[in-house]
Fold these 4 entries.
Entry 1:
Amino acid sequence: VLTNAFRGPIWARYISSKASGATSNGTEAFFARISSANIHPPRRASKAGWTVSRIGFGAQRVGFGVVETHRHALKLSLRSGCNIIDTSGSYEQGHSERVIGEVVKEMVEDGELSREQVIIVSKCMVPQGGKYASISDGISSSLTHMNLSCLDIFLMNFEDGESISLDILRSSFAVLEDEVASGRIQYYGIAADSFATFGPNITQLLSSIANEFPHFLAVQYPLNIFEHHSITQRTPPNYTLSDTARRLNLLQLSTRPLNVNVSKALHPESVSRHASPQLVRLACVPSHEGKDLPHQLRDAFNATIHLEKTCPLRAPVQDDGAPRHLPPSDLSGLSWGHIVANNTDRLTDLWAWKHIVERQIIPSYETALSRLARDERLLPWIVQYRLALNQMLTQYTYALESNAASDYALLDVTLGRAWSDDDVGVRSLSLSQKAVKILLDP
């Protein structure tokens, strides 16, 4: 999450133990212990009085997969000069907030941090037409997940421009002002995946509402080298969203510096909220040059499909001389070789494929194999199938990476031209590092 306190993008973050929330003195003290040579100079969110790091910790995927890696990453971020964390009660079904709460509590108890030093941002999706009870429910859920008494910023996450009107904002902000008065949040704001879809009304809406509600602090929007409409697209009277936020003294939080929604980047005003996102990750991928990928992939498919065809469960299993048929549910998750081989014409997007592997294929076959492992006679086949399927998934990933490598290499070279030939250090950075640095540099 990047944050813009008046001038340009910054990133956002979070922390926890039950004590109060971020304070002016606390956030200033946070940076007193950090070497200024190792971080981008922090910025001041003057309405709140906080000192805010330019780069923070975005926690959308925290809590899924290797959680210990996420815990280590969050600790490293907090120790390295990031003092703002951005999460949501919907991220990984609440596991993101739980992990964050655990890590912050641990670091506070160990004396590495105080709760007052870190800015915690959470959010909830606002349904079409309002339903303001969901706002208070979202705050309650986040506080419970993270074991906090107060959130520093709570964002209403609007899905698209049709969701926002002056009446909805006024009604929602009135609820949020009550939450501030109750001490459950300090400030609040609005977030959207693409403010560009709101058209010219967004700057007028913000201008109309900002002075009415004293604790309206933040706006959050995507910002990367492709999705830059919030800082480049001007609406009457010749202001960008960023210009308007700066003029109104609002803290700007930007997200997704490395994940591009291609459809919204190219045609932000015409994308339906029901359209499936086309995501591109700004990261170099290996070309696997010198490997015989077609031959290796063919062998991996053949081995996996052969094991699926000869799975002991596809024929009666003899038990004391009598055939025993296991229920069809036991075969669920054991056909991925066939499924992928029959859909190679559709499985062509590298990042979509990686998402499918991580979220669908691996959980499916591991659940199936754990069921089968109760029968010791099936263990040899289980070992063979797991190895073969993992090899097939790896080889298919290699093939997609090889196909995409030249495009990402060209993007890397093109982005590197933003700096002079003399700046060898910057030009040697990875694509991901360049994509972030170009947002942080003046």
Entry 2:
Amino acid sequence: MAESLLPGGASTDDAPTPVANVQHDEVAMLKAKIAQLQMLNASLAAAEAPAARRRRRAPKEQSATDSPAPSGYESDESSSASYDDGSDLEREIDSGYFAAYGSFHIHEDMLKDRVRTEAYRDFMYKNKDLFKDKIVLDVGCGTGILSMFAAVSGASKVFAVDASDIIEKAKLNIQENNLQHIISCFKGKAEQVVLPEKVDIIISEWMGYCLLFETMLPSVVLARERWLKPAGKVYPEWATMHIVALSDDDYIKDRINYWQDVYGFKMTAMQENVGREAHVDVMDPETVISAPCRVAEINCTTTTAEALDRVESKFELTIDLKGEMAGKEVPLSMFVVYFDMEFDRAAQNLVGFSTGPLATPTHWKQTVVILKDKTLKVAHGDVIRGNISFCTSRDAFRDLDVRVSYEIVGKTGVLEQINFVST
């Protein structure tokens, strides 16, 4: 008989047998309640109720201060939340988004990102005191890996939620590891799903390229407002965004000169996109020419969906040339934006990770903003001041618009450019 990964290393054979019929009845009632909610959430997902709009607002039928959902439901009307109607375009975007996350390969890539996956595992395994006997909600559970980490770390119940078809694989993965007595799966959007009760902890791997691409954090925030107990926590709790200057003439030439000879044909019209669209790439750490500047700090336990719609900050970078670049003027090629995550600054064992160019590469890579002016040069000690903003795209709410303005103090006036992070 296969051993179960129960907290403390216990097997299913070691589990205590209920000694009173009332305990059997309570377990049966809970299972029936969960099964009923699972059916309800599946119905909501199948009906594709309107998605929350870019500027989400709290549900009317059940606010953050309402009591948990009752055990019985007579109709969808009594259980579903009310939201702003989404446009046909928004529903189409959501449909494609969740379809993509139903595929096998995207989850394989994320699981094989050891920086990402091991950070979640290490935080939970090294801080089991935070999870012992707690009720946990996993938003966007995917294959169920984070839910299983939470169960092994001592959670009494885990609610695994995902709107994509991958939830069916998560159920099988959970059953294969004998954790179905702790983890219950619900198919549906975080904005709409109905749970049996409120939770102590929300875990989620919501981060996209440039942190905010895909606009998943507002969904986590809404789930937090509906289901997290007053003293609860969202993990990871802290996200910080940084900007840094790079000089990489070879990278720029490769991006531009490529279009001069594409299998013997010139395609110079394609070059305009080099400066208009942000790129996602792993950059050479040797090309970094400044210390980073923090441009945003987000507390996932307290932030609001409205605050995430536009994140804006001033920045200042001082050029620091070393090695072969020391004593020279070098091209100012690009700015790179990346993010760091910290799970809980008050935990006994601190765990976090960075997606920056000086850190181990992750599947998020870095977001590269190539400067339109290719003639700018900087020397050691030069100061760059600017402003950067990240806005939910008006055209597609899961996309992110990045706008940058900057000046090299004493050398140039304010230079402005807009870059779009898009699919």
Entry 3:
Amino acid sequence: AAVILATEPMWAALFAAGLLGETFGTKDVVGGVLMVGACIVSGMKAQDVHKLFSQDHDGMMGEAEQELK
């Protein structure tokens, strides 16, 4: 639900572009992507976020994970 609510400004901008001929700049697109991306990441489990951004993709534990165990 948070992702849907966070995309409300994006939908408003898309309708403004379609109905009123508004144009998007680079900052507008980057800002929209960052907002939606942040909502998606915040809704994920911590383990999934760690896997997504981990540099170690071969299944071996990194130093930080070994310290936690």
Entry 4:
Amino acid sequence: MPKTTTASSADALCCCEYIDNVGEKSHMLACCCDCEALDDSCDRLITCRAIPNKNCQALCEVISDRCRIPWCDGSGAIQLHTDILIPVTVIPLSLWLCTVSLLVTVIVLISMPFFMLMFYRIWKRRTKRERTRFFYAWAMVSILIILLEFNIIMWSDSSPDRLSFFHVIFIDITVVLMFWALISARGDPGVIQKSEKGRPCPSNIKHAKGSKTSTSETWLENGSHENVSSHKIDQTDVQQADSGSHFKDPVANLLMANFGFEMEDLQKCANFKKETIYQETVTWVDSRPFKGGELETWCKLCDVRKPPRSGHCNVCRVCIQGRDHHCVWIDNCVGRNNHRSFIVAMLLFIFISCYGGYMVLISVCISETFFKVVRVPIQCYHVYELEDTVSSLIFASSCYALLVAGIMCLALLNQVIMISQDITSQELHMAAQRGLVQCAVCAGNNVNNRGILQNWIHFWKGKRPQSYGPSVV
């Protein structure tokens, strides 16, 4: 039986070998060997004992690491990420299962949203909200299946009088535009970089650019920098020092004399640290949380200033300007820079799913024309009586496309309600915690709400207000 060995940089890997997650060389034939989580889980199943969560998590990590295919470029077997592999296999197999009968089609299509919801809950619980490509891969596979079945029925000789070449070109161009909007939505949502706050502040440095070698530097290295971190540079001292060359604060003078700080740097630092807004004074809807009775205007995790309408994403682990929410379907945050592209991608996806599903249904089903314009499918069960399974597969795919479009319409409706108020999902969530939300979607004391028309104009022009008033930092 193959055994794992310690990896070495000089060892060459054959097509079936790989370096596992513990840094040891292993072989694909040893996929069931040396797995304590699997052995313990099997023992517990045989003895009818409960399997702890840590075993399930360890087993998932082992399966993800050992799911590979041979590769002959010298780097060994390639890992197949399970969060991508599951949608690629589950969706086609589910649609193929739908070809059995109409009842099976209904059961499978109803169970698919619950399967995604179950995976989402497991993902949040087991991975502590780490990024996953499962939902993004699911969306991409769904789009490709819709496009494939649309082109199959378009180029089919079974119904040349019903569909024309124009429909193929039109839907293909729409898909290209949707992918362009999707790529833009997966771009930078407006990440707040550390460079935006200027030079380092005394609360987060041990060495400053241009620092001099002195006993003061040794003093900071030995841990006394914590005294500097907890020390606040008085804003009054900063203002009084504008006309001179020294602060009254001894810590400020130390930083200027021995660590290359300039007066402008320390003044910026004092401006960042002076922001103290007490919770009882905040009457407006704010995207930032409260801690200790004060509004958090500084993110300790990202070490950046949090401007108005910004928020910290626990999945991306960054702060986003104008943050709306983290969308698992694009595996990215939706913020100030990509919100419009996100809405455009949603609109095009819904249009493609509805238009493609409708055109396929009137092609494979018996349809009737109403008002000499609208054709409506009225009888579709005969597709399961045909010897060819292609018709039933295409019918199931079109039903799946319409189901996905219906779910996406709910998400789009939520975005329409938010944009009509000029409020983000982050702000609505924080307002709900403060009891400022009415009817679950309407927030009171929203200072940026200027009416539905003006809100939409500002949104499409990219000129949404990025503050809560002139006196709010």
